[in-house]
Amino acid sequence: MIYEQYAEAWDTQNADLLGSLCHPNLEMIMHSSGTVVSKAEYIERLGPMMQKIKPENRRCLYENEDVLIMHFLIPFPNGTKDAVLYYIQKENGLMRRIETGSTPLNKG
Length: 108
Description:
With 108 residues, the chain is α+β, with helices and mostly antiparallel strands. It has one domain (3-105): Nuclear Transport Factor 2, Chain: A, CATH 3.10.450. Helix content is 27%, strand content 49%. The protein has helices at 3-11, 15-20, 39-52; strands spanning 22-30, 35-38, 56-63, 67-75, 81-91, 94-105. The protein has a 6-stranded mixed beta sheet. The protein is globular, with a radius of gyration of 13 Å. The model has no long low-confidence stretch (mean pLDDT 91).
C-alpha cells in the first residue's frame, strides 16, 4: 500500500520517493482555487515544502487498492496550523488523483 511509503517520503524529505508513488498522469485538485496540478507541479511544490514543514498527527483513515484517505496537521512557519484531509484515488498502485481540503486552526 502507498500510505507507509508516503509517510516515509515525508519523514526522510525524499521527493524522489514521493515522485515514484505518483502516476504519470497525476492530477491534484486544489478546491480552494479550482487549480489542477500535474505530477511535475506537485513534486515541484512539495519538494521544497518537505524541507520546511513537518506534518503532525499524520494518520491513514482508510486505504485499499483503489483509494487512500489521510488526515494530518500542517504547522506553518508563521505559527498558524491547518488540518488537512487528502483523498487519493489510485490507479495501477500509484496516486492518480488527489483532492485535498484544509481548515485553518486557531492559535493557542
